[in-house]
Design brief:
With 580 residues, the protein is mainly beta. The protein contains no helices and 46 strands. It is rod-shaped, with a radius of gyration of 62 Å.
Length: 580
């Protein structure tokens, strides 16, 4: 007989015969599915595809002279089983019904199952299906059981581990702490195990998906993003394989760090000052800032403002609805008047021989701080103080200390008294001095003048107006006043032409645009000096018959005609003494 297995190719069955050559072959009944008969050669080949009980098959050989038969017996059995598997290990509890354990396998269908040793009391083994079910009635230590699956073609085995524990109670939940950590902080733990402070002996913590029983005893990694995280934690009894029926919620907060802040000082009125304090604060990308002043939350970012002094602010940053702690920073607003002072002083006008005045000005600039100032520019627009009918010119301009005078200063097209290289040392007091010659052209009265100082400081560029008073006596930035006297004809009683530089000429004070006609007589009535357009240049020498001669000391009589621009004439007569 021939016994084959489903799915396994057979070894070809080749016929043998004597007598004449066979021309055709037939078989009856039909061969099992998957097998074929070659009607020319009589060879049987193929792979059986279904189980076939033992049967006899008659093969008939034919040629022109007759027939001959032969009987063969063929059986096709199921394939041997393989890949038998059960869930394992299994821990059951006494008196608690188990979830049935069903086998899985590959290969041929298993006809019967067997197990060794016997299962714990209360559990049954179905030898046809291999299913283990029931309710354990006694405690059983962990044991390995060998299960064998068999069919006509062979068998397969699997090992299953079963433990039956006494009636166990679910463990208590763990004790946890909620914790707040700072984003990227040095104390940030690696896993959430750090938040579990204790758990019952024989158990381990298990982190579960909220609302489900999907748990893991592997501690989750601590999140790195800013946010609020809530975890449901149970305990797991590793012996009874039971989770605690109650759980605890553990909250982990990853908070933003405090904002990075800097203290800063500003000077009121400096053009480069920011509009608010936001430039002093930085934080995480996407964060929003909350500002506090005197403990009160501000509705908007605080402005630098205009109130002198120091203000202390606190600021926090919020990201993903989590607010950080606060950082404290100070903003100080300085009064520029307490940093630099400029006093403008003017002396009385000095009358010149040509009926003009020289006015000496002093600009005293003081650094009131302990830090140096650079690029000190003093400016004075004289055109703004001199009447439009009058003329003026700058006679000289000098400076002291770190100030460098500008040679091009004219008070009009160039109003800079100092050069940009000028400096002002800490607590220094330096002076710029200049003299202007004023041609009143008939003007008399009080003139006002202000100057300005511009300086580069560590807080920015500041500009300050001059004051007529010192810093200690200043109540306001009052302009500096100077007076232009009303000129009238004033004739001296004498002069001393000894060339010592003092009173060498006969100087007559006169108003603007008045022409003087002067005649001087000696005691005998002779004209010793005459000038129809006198310019205050008589130095005691004669004219006419006395030309080039030094007149002798003594008294002389004069006659002076003063003619103004309208032609009005005033005549003055008197005596003048020459005393060398």
């Amino acid at each position: 007989p021939n016994v084959y297995t489903v799915g396994t190719a057979i070894t070809s069955l080749n016929p043998t015969s004597t007598g004449g050559a066979i021309s055709t072959y037939t078989v009856s009944p039909s061969l099992p599915a998957g097998l074929t008969l070659n009607t020319t050669t009589g060879i049987i080949t193929g792979t059986p595809t279904s189980i076939t009980p033992q049967a006899s098959y008659v093969v008939t050989a034919n040629n022109a002279s007759g027939t001959n038969t032969s009987t063969i017996i063929i059986t096709v059995n199921v394939s041997a089983p393989s890949g038998l598997n059960y869930t394992s290990p299994n821990v059951f509890t006494k008196s608690s019904s188990i979830t049935a354990l069903s086998p899985t396998s590959t290969g041929g269908t298993i006809a019967t199952y067997s197990i060794s040793p016997s299962l714990p009391a209360g559990l049954s083994f179905n030898t046809t299906t291999g299913i283990i079910s029931g309710t354990p009635t006694s405690v059983s230590a962990q044991t390995s059981y060998l299960i064998t699956g068999t069919n006509v073609s062979g068998n397969v085995t699997a090992t299953i581990v079963i433990t039956v524990n006494d009636n166990a109670q679910p463990p208590l939940p763990p004790v946890v702490i909620s914790k707040k950590y700072i984003y990227n902080g040095s104390n940030l733990p690696t896993t959430l195990k750090a938040l579990v402070t204790s758990f019952p002996v024989g158990t381990i913590p298990a982190w579960c998906t909220i609302g489900t029983l999907n748990c893991t005893t592997t501690p989750p990694t601590v999140p790195t993003a800013v946010g609020k995280y809530v975890y449901q934690i149970r305990t797991y009894d590793t012996t009874a394989q039971l989770y605690s029926t109650t759980f605890v919620n553990d909250t982990l907060i990853i908070a933003p760090p405090v904002p990075v802040v800097v203290d800063s000082t500003y000077v009121f009125g400096v053009a480069t000052n920011p509009s608010n304090v936001s430039v002093l604060v930085s934080g995480l990308t996407g964060a929003t800032f909350s500002y506090y002043y005197l403990g009160a939350l501000q509705n908007s970012t605080p402005a630098i403002g205009n109130v002198f002094g120091a203000k202390k602010y606190a600021v926090s940053q919020t990201l993903n609805n989590i607010e950080s702690d606060t950082s404290v920073f100070n903003v100080t607003l300085l009064d520029p008047a307490n940093l630099i002072h400029l006093q403008k002083i003017v002396d009385s006008g000095i009358l010149q021989v040509n009926s003009t005045y020289n006015y000496p000005f002093s600009l005293v600039v003081s650094n009131l701080t302990n830090t140096p100032f650079t690029n000190i520019i003093l400016t004075d627009n004289l055109q703004n103080s001199v009447p439009i009918t009058s003329d003026y010119s700058v006679v000289k301009n000098i400076a002291t200390g770190g100030l460098i005078a500008s040679n091009s200063f004219n008070g009009n097209s160039d109003i800079n008294l100092t050069l940009p290289a000028s400096i002002l040392a800490p607590l220094a007091k330096d002076t710029s001095k200049f003299v202007i010659n004023l041609v009143p052209k008939g003007y008399s009265g009080t003139l006002t003048n202000v100057a300005y100082v511009k300086a580069n400081t560590k807080w920015g560029t500041i500009i300050m107006q001059s004051s007529s008073a010192t810093k200690a006596n200043e109540t306001s930035k009052a302009p500096t006043n100077y007076y232009v006297k009303d000129l009238s004809i004033s004739i001296p009683e004498g002069f001393s032409p000894n060339h010592d530089g003092a009173h060498d000429n006969f100087v007559i004070i006169k108003p603007y645009n008045v022409t003087l006609e002067l005649e001087v007589f000696n005691r005998w009535g002779s004209i010793v000096y005459s000038n129809n357009n006198y310019k205050n240049d008589w130095d005691g020498k004669g004219t006419g018959n006395f030309a080039g001669k030094d007149l002798i000391d003594g008294g002389y009589y004069y006659s002076l005609r003063a003619v103004d621009e309208t032609g009005k004439v005033q005549v003055f007569k008197g005596f003048v003494i020459i005393q060398r």
